[in-house]
Amino acid sequence: MSICPKNRSSKARRDKRRANWKMSAVNLVKCSRCGALMMPHRVCKACGSYNKKEIVSVED
After folding, report:
1. Hey, which residues does 44 pair with through a beta bridge?
2. Strand partners, 54
3. 59 three-class SS
4. Which residues touch 55 (CB under 8 Å, ≥6 apart)?
């Protein structure tokens, strides 16, 4: 079974719903080990640490 609308929605009403689908800025935090900006809850690309522990070895 599919949705059966009673009345047709106008283009303006339809596009008002779609106006709220916008991108948000990336949230960045400082790494607790090296101080570089990184996304939260991810391994730091600069030093390879997560939660003050080295997870990935990074070559300089």
Report:
1. none
2. 49
3. coil
4. 43, 48, 49
Between CA 48 and CA 60 the distance in angstroms is 11
Helix (H) and strand (E) counts in the chain: 1, 4
Question: What pLDDT digit, counting tens, does each position of 2-57 carry?
Answer: 788 899 999 999 999 888 888 889 999 999 999 999 999 999 999 999 998 898 98
Q: What is the distance between the alpha carbons of residues 29 and 27, in angstroms, rounded to a whole number?
A: 7
What is the rounded distance in angstroms from the CA atom of residue 32 to the CA atom of residue 38?
Answer: 10
Buried b / exposed e over 14-27, threshold 16 CB at 10 Å, is: eeeeeeeeeeeeee
- Using a cut of 0.85, tell me whether the model's pTM lies above it: no
